[in-house]
Each structure stands twice: as C-alpha cells, then as structure tokens.
Amino acid sequence: MSEDKIPQDYSAKSEVGFVRVRRTRFQRTLIDLKKAPPTALLGMIIILTYIIVALFAAQIAPYGEAEVFLVPYAPWGGDHILGTDQIGRDIFTRLIYGARNTVGIALMTTLLAFLIGVFFGLLAAILGGWADQALSRLVDVMMAIPSLIFALMLLSIFGTNAVNLIIILAILESTRVFRLTRAVGLNVVVMDYVEVARLRGEKIGWIIRKEILPNILPPLVAEFGLRFCFTFLAIAALSFLGLGIQPPSADWGSMVRENAGLINFAHYDIQSGLTPLLPAAAIAILTVGVNFVVDWFLQKTSGIRDEK
Amino acid sequence: MKNNNLGHSQPLLKMSNIQIEGFADERWHKIIKGIDLTLHRGQILGLIGESGAGKSTLGLAAMGFARPGCRFTGGEVEFDGLNLTKMPEYAKRKLWGTRITYVAQSAAAAFNPAHRLLDQTIESTVRGKIKPELEAKADAKKLYEELQLPEPDLIGDRYPHQVSGGQLQRVMTAMAMSAKPDLIIFDEPTTALDVTTQAEVLASMRFIVEQYNTAAIYITHDLSVVAQMADDIKVLRYGEEVEEANTREMLSNPKKDYTKSLWSVRSIDKKEKSNDDYVLEINNVSAAYGASKVLFDVDIKLPRGRTVAVVGESGSGKSTTARVITGLLPPSNGQVVFNGSSLLPALNQRSKEELRKIQMIYQMADVAMNPKQTVSEIVGRPLEFYHGLKGKEQDRRTIELLEMIELDESFMDRLPNELSGGQKQRVCLARALAADPEIIICDEVTSALDQIVQEGILKLLMKLQDELNVSYLFITHDISTVKAISDEVVVMFQGKVIEQGPKTKIFSPPHPEYTQLLLSAVPEMDPDWLTNYLDSKT
C-alpha cells in the first residue's frame, strides 16, 4: 500500500493500491544485466567469445582443421603462431576448431541429457507410486557405476563416433538431471494449482509444460550450466583417453594428450613446454566463465545473498 | 479480567512515537508511523487490526527488536527504566527470554523437533541464570499443571511432534512464563487452533497471566478473542493508531468509523431457503487414505441453487468429502449422485462435461494460482478448455468475469503476487465461474482473510448465487460464516455426519452433544463470554 493513497471505503479493487507497471522481458533482462556483478559480466564475455570463435572457426582460423605442414613440432612464431603438433598441424588453428567440436558436442550432450532427465523426472514426480519407484531405482543402479568407466565400456561396445558419444554421455548425465528435476518437481506437484489443472481434466503434457516447468526453471537453468561444465570435462577426459572425439577432428582433450610429451622440454624451451597447457587452459577458462554466470543466476533466483 | 492498581504508578513499558521502516521493492516503506503505547504491570493490552496494520511489528518493537529487513527510524522504547532503543544487542539478549518473552503464532514451527519439551521450556531460564535447572524443571511442571496439560509430570519428556497443536501452544506459554517475565507478547497464539481447543488455551493463558500479575500484549485479528483477553484495546490500521480504549467501552461504544466497521462485519444474514431438487447427493460414502479410514457412511444432500455449509474441526473429514466429490479420492464405498446419475469414482474416468460442472475454490488462494501466469491466463484457460474460446472472444469473456467479481480490465496482466489476499480469492472464484459450473465447492475460502475482506467475498458469493443459481458446498470451521451464508448445515465429527438440516433448526436447541460443544466454544464479542463458558462447563 502506498503511503499517500489510503482508501477510506472498502472496495475490492483498491486493496492493492501500489502496483508497478509491468516491464517487458527485455526491459527486465536489461535491468538484471546492469546489476550483474563484474564476475558474471566477465563470465558472459568469456562465453560469448567462445561462441563467436566456435561459430566462425572457418573464418578466423588461418589454416584448415586437418591441414598438415612439413615441419612437425615447429616452434612458436613465424607462419605458425603457436607452432605445429606431432604431425605438423597448426596448433592455433586446431585450438579454434576445438572450440567448435568440444563445446558443440558438450552442448548437444547437455541438451539431450536435460531433455531425457527433465521428462522422466517430472513423469516420476507426477505419477508417483510404481512409476516413480521403477524410474528412481533404475537411475540409482546407473549412478552406482562410476560414470567414466561406464562410458568407456559403452563406447568400446558401440564404437566411438560423435553420435554414440553424445547419446551415451547424455544418458549417463541425465541421471543427475532426473534426480534434481524429480526433487524440485515434487514440491510443485503438490501445489493446489496443479490440482486445479488436474480437476479441470488437463492432459499430463499440458500440466508439465504450463504448470510445472515454469516454476522449476531457475534451478534447472543453474544446473544446466554446471552440468555443461561436467559434460565438457568428461568429453575432454574421454578424448584424452583416446575414446572421445576422433582424429582428424580437432579437440582440446586429445590435443593435451598428443602434445603432453612436450612438457618435458619446458626445461629447454618454455614456449614448447606451454603448448600442451594451451588447450587445457581453454577448457579451464570456459569452465570458470560458465560457473561465474551460474553463480550469479543462482544467487538471483534463490535469494541467497552474501552478507555484506 | 482485572483493572485494579493500574493507577498512576510508573508504567512498565513506555513506547513513544515509534517509527519503523521496512525494506521492500528496493525502497524503504513506513510500517509504523509514530505510535505511542504504555503498559502497566498486570495489564493486558490487545492490539487488533487487519493484516499489514503493523501489529506484529509493533509487538516485536516492544522488545526493542526489529525484524531483519526492518529498522527503527524514530521513537523510544522504555522498559522498566531501561531504554531498549539505545541498548546494545547483547544487553537486550539478556532481557529476552527472561524478562520479556514472546509466544508465536505457530508453536509447531517455534519448537526444535530434536529436543524434549521440558528442556526447551526451561532453556532460557537456566541460561539466563534465573534459577538452577532442577528448580526450573519443578516450576515448569507446576506451570504445565496450571495450564491444564495432561500428565504434567511426564508431558515434558515428550518431543514436540508427540503432543497436539493446542497442547504445544500451552507448552509454549509455559516456556514464556518459565522465567517469570515482566512482559509477555502473544502474537496470534490461537489462530491456528480449532474453536474447541482455542477456548481452553485462552482460558489457561488468561489464568496464568493473572496469577503472576504479568503484563501482556495480545496481538490478534479476531475481535471476539481479544474481548476475552484484554483490559484495553488498541486498534491499528496502516501503521497508525485508530483508537485505544478500555475493552468494555471499545466494544459498546467505538468512536471511529473504522472501528465500527470492524465491529459490524458479521452483519450478513441470509434468509434461509429450502429446495427439494437436489443437484448433488452423497450416499453412504466411506473413504480411506491407505489403511486409515477417514469417512464413515457420509450422507450429504445439496439442493440446487442453495448453500450447504459443512462444519467441523480439523480432521473431521470435511476436506476429504470434497476430495471424494471431485474424484481425487475414489470412495471405498457408496456413491456420488450428480443430477440424478451416479458419477464414476475416479477423476480420470469422468467426462470433461462432468468435470466442468463441479468446480472448487481453495483456502490458500496464493498456492491455488500458478505464480507464473497472469490473471488473464488463469481465467482464460478454462474458457478455452471447456468452451473453446480463443483470442478476442476469450479476452472479452475474461473481462466480463472480472467485472462479475468486482475487479476490472486493469487486472488482466497482473501476476498473483501483485494481488491482495482478497483479490486472489476473487480471481480464483472467477476461474471457477469461467467453467459455468453448477456446483462450487468452497474449502475454507475465507479463513485466511481479514474480516472486512471476508465479508466482501461472502457478499459476492451470495450475489452470484442469486444471479447464476449456482450451488455451494461451503466447507468451514467458522460458525459465524456458516450463520451468515448457509441455507443448510452439515455438522461433521471424526469422519461421520452428526446432523444435517436447515440452518435455523441446527442452530436452535436441542442439539446433539457435539454440536452443542462446537457452538458454545465459539467466542462471542462479549468480554464475559469466556468466564461464562468456563462456568457452564463445570
């Protein structure tokens, strides 16, 4: 109630005298962005840079992704800013293409994981009873097996290609998404407005889409950021082990592996010693950037604030 | 009630020109705008007003405390010669729990579930070094006895979940009395209780406060309760004092218009009409949640275009009956007959048309609406779902419905959290009306609202019944609401129907035993009511 406007007679309309003008989504986003802490802005700049690099890899990169030059292990400088690798491919070029491959596959995997996890999580939350038990226990079983080893096993059974990689990792990651979705979904499913929708005779799809999803979106988006980082690291790890993205596609995980030996030469040439750390740094910086943004988003939606 | 020796002695508590601001929507709002308050030893002051009037904030301010997000901006609190507003936090902490204590609305939320009641009762007394532990325990047991708790020697060994809500509220009073404080602040201590329990809790609280000559501030929105408890009443509105007077004078002769309007809200009196055309009949229905049976052979008949009120305490099966009618809980036995034909037991077996004709409104309007949907989406959806209205047609009808519930077009784009409690309930009503129902089940629809707002909703319900000939099944525990709007009354107790009949018949003697108990336990706006009630019971 605003201070200057106190109604003297009762009427239903005047009960709330002070209502802000509704801002459009765009305006609200702008205001949020203005108030974002510097870490979050830095995070957004990092993510944006990666996206641009990934999208325009072909235009930015000086050479082709799998183009082989005469000199392997060329030093930094000259025609190759960051030198060449063990078979003479330009490292700078491969770093740029790596953004497209590694980030792209990680994004696809995370999206698929959420599609599966959220759908089944909400199904379990709404149906309850046997359906919930069956789904939850199945997930428990899958989570009981260490996921990296599980992934290695499945990849060696089904063969290593990008599609298999995405599907297998997505299914493994979706177990975590399932758990979160089911937990937050359970809180919303018991709300009266969901009961109202059921009493109205709404179909389950409509209830999920219109009544439940909008109300559990904030934790899911936050989880998406974190999950993306983990998927990303898992792909890099798999590539490092030789089962991830296959050559000649450039990928940061395998770049670390292929050039790992160079670290021994740091003693003689600091630049060549740094070379295997470059793709590792690319991974680290993106992970940190995404986490900055996720932290800010969590803080904004959960109401948890650092005491000042 | 006592009015002795208040005289001209030094007041115990003196609050002058208190101003408090609260932070919301990124700016500071005035919550309390300069209120004075004096309280003598042994005096009970009632603070009443609607929600948002600043009652609780003022009550806490008497302890020198401002909630997180609130701040003192002016005024002084003087407690027994100590200036609480200037006192550092640690010094105030020594007073809290020992010389000033607080009884909160929801005892269940205020107790630590992991500790025994007795340990929690004496905690601040022992920590404040008022008494040694053994002595404090003995005193606490004596308090339990005075508060008429069963097995006073043993009940302290129980955990909070092992006692009932009314008992927990009394243990909390014992906790507040344990250190023999000079001042107790009661913040709506009986609001969450059933009427029959409420009367007893009120009696024991009044007894204990008189016994030890403690001063108290009693905060409530229920006038008839404050009439039993307080020596004086202060009426608040929008953070300002409306008036303060002696209880009897305030009740018989309120000065300000606002106070008069508070006093007269239960003026609705519906002429009772009967009808032999039953739109809904519940025949011999029994139901159970898993293994525990909650309804036993319930028979209820709802005449077309009339209001049947279902009354009873919590746990009497009122809401379960509603769940059986809507199909959320298929009955284990018996049937629900709607317009002469039997409804299938489960929700998903019923046709869209059957679902449309029975609508429901809930107690908590804020959780009955999706917080992410605007009013136009909330009201528009049933229009589209049942009647296939889209776009402009849908908007036109939505506005029509909003006007029926005395709101207008400007509410279309609001989200539920931009509506007041009463407006939310109106929008829920509009959503139910959008389906063009024959029956609306109202489950405690007014019990979360202030009295003036309640009256508005009840009048609206009656007006709509006249216009649309819709039938209401009105579930409530509030007898005065029943008197106001019903044609017929069903009294329920422990899952059984005690009696059903026209309002005048149910409310005139002779009553079955339980109806008698239920009716007599409803506080009246008469300061002697509690005394008479207790006399009549002995």
Keywords:
heterodimer, A: 308 residues, mainly alpha, MetI-like fold, disordered N terminus, B: 538 residues, alpha/beta, Rossmann fold, six-stranded mixed sheet, 20 strands, globular
Question: How would you describe this structure to a colleague?
Answer:
The complex is a heterodimer of chains A (308) and B (538). Chain A has 308 residues and is an all-alpha fold. Chain A has a single domain, classed as MetI-like fold, CATH 1.10.3720.10. Chain A is built from 12 helices and no strands. Chain A is globular. In chain A, 35% of the residues are buried. Residues 1-8 of chain A have low confidence and may be disordered. In chain B, strand 17 (439-443), helix 16 and strand 18 form a beta-alpha-beta unit. In chain B, the strands form 4 sheets. Chain B has a 6-stranded mixed β-sheet, sandwiched between helices. Chain B has a 6-stranded mixed β-sheet with strand order 16-17-18-13-19-20, with helices on both faces. Chain B is built from 20 helices and 20 strands. Helix content of chain B is 36%, strand content 25%. The two termini of chain B are 19 Å apart. Chain B is an alpha/beta fold and 538 residues long. Chains A and B meet through helix 8 and helix 9 of A and helix 13, helix 15 and helix 16 of B.
Largest interface: A-B, 26 and 47 residues
User: What is the string of SSEs of chain A from the N terminus onward?
Assistant: HHHHHHHHHHHH
Question: Based on DSSP secondary structure assignment, what is the total number of beta strands of chain A?
Answer: 0
- Backbone CA Rg of chain A: 25 Å
Q: So, CATH architecture of the domain at 43-57 and 89-263 in chain B?
A: 3-Layer(aba) Sandwich
Quickly count the domains of chain A.
Answer: 1
Structural class computed from helices and strand pairing of chain B: alpha/beta
| Number of H/I helices of chain A | 12
* Total of DSSP H or I helical runs spanning 4+ residues of chain B: 20
